[in-house]
């Protein structure tokens, strides 16, 4: 890569972008009785450039760092089938969905994976 030659003065820049659970709104899937999920995210960095030998050799250095702490959020209720849906099984869910054409077969692999879903352990307000 060829870039414009450097300057004889030192220049630099710094930046930071951050988010945390104290300043952000509640996730719409975290229902009110449950506490907000923990979140801290920092994206930061900077650069510096300047001369090493006047009018001849120049230095450029940049750094970027990323730190993230993401707590486990409350369960998203649509990710685990309800007890009624578990009783229907995969074929019943497909038959009950108006967006899926009638008579659509259920893949046997999907039917076996459906058995691995846990029963819901939280009430999803409707």
Q: Taking strands numbered 1, 2, ... along the chain, how are they ordered across the largest sheet?
A: 1-2-3
Helix content range of the residues, please? 10-25%
Quickly count the domains.
2
N- to C-terminal distance:
58 Å
Q: Specify the number of helices.
A: 2
The average pLDDT score comes to 80
Structural class: alpha+beta
- Along the chain, the helix and strand elements come as EEEHH
Q: Would you write up a description of this structure?
A:
The protein is α+β, with helices and mostly antiparallel strands and 126 residues long. It folds into two domains: 60 residues, no CATH class; 35 residues, no CATH class. The protein has two helices and three strands; from the N terminus they run βββαα. The protein has a three-stranded antiparallel β-sheet with strand order 1-2-3, with no helix packed on it. Strand 2 and strand 3 form a beta hairpin. It starts with 10 loop residues before the first strand and ends in a 12-residue tail after the last helix. The model has no long low-confidence stretch (mean pLDDT 80).
Short description:
The protein has 126 residues and is of the alpha+beta class. 17% of the residues lie in helices and 31% in strands. It folds into 2 domains: 11-70, no CATH class; 80-114, no CATH class.
Q: What is the strand and helix layout of this fold?
A:
Elements: E1 11-20, E2 39-53, E3 57-70, H1 83-96, H2 108-114
Antiparallel strand pairs: 1-2, 2-3
Keywords:
single chain; 126 residues; alpha+beta; three-stranded antiparallel β-sheet; 17% helix; elongated
């Amino acid at each position: 890569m060829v870039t414009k030659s450097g300057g004889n003065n030192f220049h630099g820049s710094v930046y930071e972008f951050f988010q945390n659970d104290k300043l952000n709104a509640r996730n719409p899937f975290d229902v009110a009785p449950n506490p907000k999920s923990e979140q801290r995210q920092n994206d930061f960095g900077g650069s510096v450039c300047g001369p090493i030998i006047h009018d001849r050799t120049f230095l450029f250095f940049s750094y970027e760092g990323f730190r993230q702490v993401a707590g486990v959020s409350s369960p998203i209720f649509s990710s685990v089938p309800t007890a009624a849906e578990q009783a229907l099984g995969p074929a019943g869910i497909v038959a009950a969905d108006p967006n899926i054409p009638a008579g659509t077969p259920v893949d046997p692999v999907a039917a076996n994976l459906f058995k691995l879903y846990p029963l819901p352990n939280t009430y999803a307000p409707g």
